[in-house]
Amino acid sequence: MTEPHVRLEIPVEGNNFTAAGEAASRVKKTLQKLGIDSTLIRRVAIATYEAEMNIVIHADAGKIVLQVDADGITVLAEDRGKGIPDLEKAMTAGFSTASDRVRAMGFGAGMGLPNIKKCTDYLAIDTEVNIGTKVVMKFNYPAAT
Amino acid sequence: MTLNELVKVIEATVVTGHEKLDTTITGVYVSDLLSDVIGHAREGQVWLTIQTHVNVVAVALLLNLAAIVFTAGTGPEAETIAKAQTEGAVLLTTKLSTFETAGRLYLNQQ
Hints:
The complex is a heterodimer of chains A (145) and B (110).
Chain A lengths: L5 E8 L8 H12 L4 H21 E11 L2 E10 L5 H4 L9 H5 L7 H8 L2 E7 L3 E8 L6
Antiparallel strand pairs in A: 1-2, 2-3, 3-5, 4-5
Chain B lengths: L2 H7 L3 E4 L10 E4 L3 H7 L4 E5 L5 H8 L4 E4 L7 H10 L3 E3 L4 H11 L2
Parallel strand pairs in B: 2-3, 3-4, 4-5
Antiparallel strand pairs in B: 1-5
Helix pairs in contact in B: 3-4
């Protein structure tokens, strides 16, 4: 299977709820243009949206980097911010440190990281308190039939 | 059911997307938690919510939802309408409660 090589880097602003979702939207549109399988696009789009929202909700600033190559699709979400003190807790469905304002908008339900885990084939989170967080998400192409 | 039929069933007002009302919907999803919608709503469904801020449009577009229905007399913010117009999302409002809206759609599904 020959897949095109693409690299797309999109900055994400912390606390900017108006622009939130733009990075995931651009990732989705890029994958659609490449003719990627729609079920796979859905998984990448959901995981990217959740990772982007995590930056908007919790971090000062960050970026989403999409990389498409022969082995699969990789999305990196990297931010400067407060980091995650207890990663195990953060991975637990229902746990959230989001503010009341953010919760009132329907975010911060503690479903972001669990959603990401469900959508990815590989997930690695590297985080340091008061420095930031780096989330690497990988997606395999569907097996050829 | 098409969006046109849905508009009649739930006595909705069309805010944006008049040109897309012949779309056939695949189902209905009801939730005010965005991560729940993101994780579980399916392509072509109509989403019932009382969340009116601009982020609901991004969620609907990401999932290719057929429309967002703001229930219980709620309505989209100006910013939400502007984004929906630019990106081509269908926004509807109804005075019916979420329960009544979902109930009527459930009874009318085929």
